[in-house]
Structure formats: structure tokens, C-alpha cells
């Protein structure tokens, strides 16, 4: 029995070693994917902002614009590309079409890990 348990442990470690690590740093995900348009401070003043059809919004005031509560689900659906109205700029990529990492459970709902990390970061920079 001890041999089986040890072999299972070795197999589990091998699987972990073969699994690519997913970047869960929301600030880094933002810097790599969003700051070009939204700016380093997420104020909507990135180097590409002037070239876009619509000015990117200030992402530090989302909670303020939503009655003091960070609109996590709304933010994730916009970033993902799942629910966007016609008022959104067509320049914003649908990040859900790419690899947003493994799924994690949030209140019994599967959410891509990178999307959750990005939403957590955006919530942390609210003014």
C-alpha cells in the first residue's frame, strides 16, 4: 500500500511539473494587454488612445460610476467580449477569444483564471 501511495505522489508531482504555469498577476496582465490603450494608470490615456475611434474609459472610476460597488461581472463580460453593446469601440479586442488560462470556480461559476486576476486588479485600483 505504501508503494502505491508513493507512486501516486510521484505521478502527481510529474503532472504538476509538466503543466505550464499560468500568470495570475493582474497588474502584469493589464500592463501586457490593456495599458497600450488604457494607459499605465488605467486612466484611458495610453499611447494608442489617440488613434482609436473612441477614447478608452478611465478604469479607476468604475466603482464610482456604479454606485460605489465594483461591477465585477460586467467588467469580466466586457473584457471577455461576451456582452458588449454598440456603444463599445470596435477597437477593443475580445480577450475571450484567446487563452485566459484554466477555469477557476467563483460562486459555482467557472471563470478563466486570467480574467479573474485582471478583474481583481482593476478592483484594487478603484479611486
In short:
43% of the residues lie in helices and 6% in strands. It has 127 residues and is mainly α. The longest helix has 17 residues, at 2-18.
Tell me what the structure shows:
The chain is mainly alpha-helical and 127 residues long. The chain is 43% helix and 6% strand. The chain has six helices and two strands, in the order H-H-H-H-H-E-E-H. It has helices spanning 2-18, 26-33, 35-38, 62-65, 72-80, 113-124, and strands spanning 103-106, 109-112. The N and C termini lie far apart (57 Å). Mean pLDDT is 85; it is low at 5-12.
Throw out a few tags for this protein.
two-stranded antiparallel sheet; globular; mainly alpha; 2 strands; 127 residues
Layout of SSEs?
Elements lengths: L1 H17 L7 H8 L1 H4 L23 H4 L6 H9 L22 E4 L2 E4 H12 L3
Antiparallel strand pairs: 1-2
Helix pairs in contact: 2-6, 5-6
Quickly give the structural class.
mainly alpha
Order of adjacent strands in the largest pleated sheet: 1-2
Shape: globular
What is the strand tally? 2
| Major sheet | 2 strands, antiparallel
Helix segment tally: 6
Task: Please tell me the overall pLDDT.
Answer: 85
In percent, how much strand structure appears in the residues?
A: 5-15%
Helix fraction by DSSP (H/I, runs of at least 4): 40-55%
Distance between the termini: 57 Å
Which regions are unreliable across 5 or more consecutive residues at pLDDT < 50? 5-12
Rg over CA atoms:
19 Å
Amino acid at each position: 500500500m505504501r508503494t502505491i501511495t508513493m507512486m501516486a505522489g510521484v505521478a502527481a508531482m510529474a503532472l504538476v511539473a509538466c503543466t505550464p504555469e499560468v500568470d495570475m498577476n493582474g497588474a502584469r496582465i493589464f500592463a501586457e494587454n490593456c495599458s497600450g490603450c488604457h494607459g499605465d494608470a488605467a486612466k484611458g490615456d495610453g499611447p494608442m488612445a489617440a488613434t482609436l475611434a473612441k477614447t478608452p474609459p478611465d478604469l479607476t472610476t468604475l466603482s464610482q460610476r456604479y454606485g460605489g460597488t465594483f461591477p465585477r461581472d460586467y467588467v469580466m463580460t466586457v473584457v471577455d467580449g461576451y456582452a458588449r453593446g454598440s456603444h463599445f469601440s470596435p477597437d477593443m479586442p475580445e480577450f475571450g477569444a484567446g487563452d485566459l488560462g484554466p477555469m477557476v470556480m467563483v460562486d459555482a461559476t467557472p471563470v478563466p483564471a486570467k480574467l479573474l486576476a485582471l478583474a481583481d486588479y482593476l478592483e484594487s485600483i478603484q479611486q
